[in-house]
C-alpha cells in the first residue's frame, strides 16, 4: 500500500522502551517518497485502518482514526474514559460511610459490652451486699448466743452464790442454836447434881 507513495527502504518493529522483549503495535517504515506524492494520515492495510505519523504530519487520532486531533484530545476516548472512570467522590463517600458504619458498630459493641459488664458488676455488688448482710446477721446471732450463754452462766453463778450464802446463814443459825442449848443442858446437869447431893 505504501509503494504507491514511494519506495519502502526498511520496516522495523518498535519495542517497549526499557523492555526490549515486548513489541508495541507500531512499525517504523523508511520510505523514499515519489515526486509530488502526498502521504495520507491514514491508510487501509488488510481491511484495517492504520495511522501514518511523521515529523510535521497533521494531527491524526490513533483511537478514532479521524484527522484534526491527537489521541490525547479525542472526544470519543474522553467519553469512553469518563464512562469507565470510577467516581472517586462516590468511592470516597462510600468509604467514609463504611468507616462510619464500622465505627458505629464498634461503638454499639462497646456499649453492649459495657452494659453487660455493668450488669455483671451490679450482680456482683448485689451478691457481695447479700453476703455482707448474711455475715452481719450471723455475727449478730453469734453475739446474741454468746451474750445469752454468758447471761445464763452469770445467772447460774448468782444462784449458786445465793444458795451458798443461804447454806452459810443456815449453818450460822444452827451453830447459834447449839450454843444457846448448851447452857440449858449444863443447868440441868447442875440440877441433877444438886438433887443427888440432897
TrEMBL record:
Q: Which segments carry the region annotation Disordered?
A: 124-180
For this protein, the record's SMART domains field holds: ZnF_C2HC (SM00343)
Q: What are the Basic residues biased-composition ranges?
A: 139-148
Superkingdom, natural source:
Eukaryota
- Please report the stretch or stretches of sequence annotated as the CCHC-type domain: 60-76
- State a single Gene Ontology molecular function: nucleic acid binding
| Composition skew (Basic and acidic residues), residue ranges | 124-138, 149-176
- InterPro entries tied to this protein: Znf_CCHC, Znf_CCHC_sf
Q: Which SUPFAM superfamilies match?
A: Retrovirus zinc finger-like domains
Query: Which protein, by its recorded name, is this?
Result: CCHC-type domain-containing protein
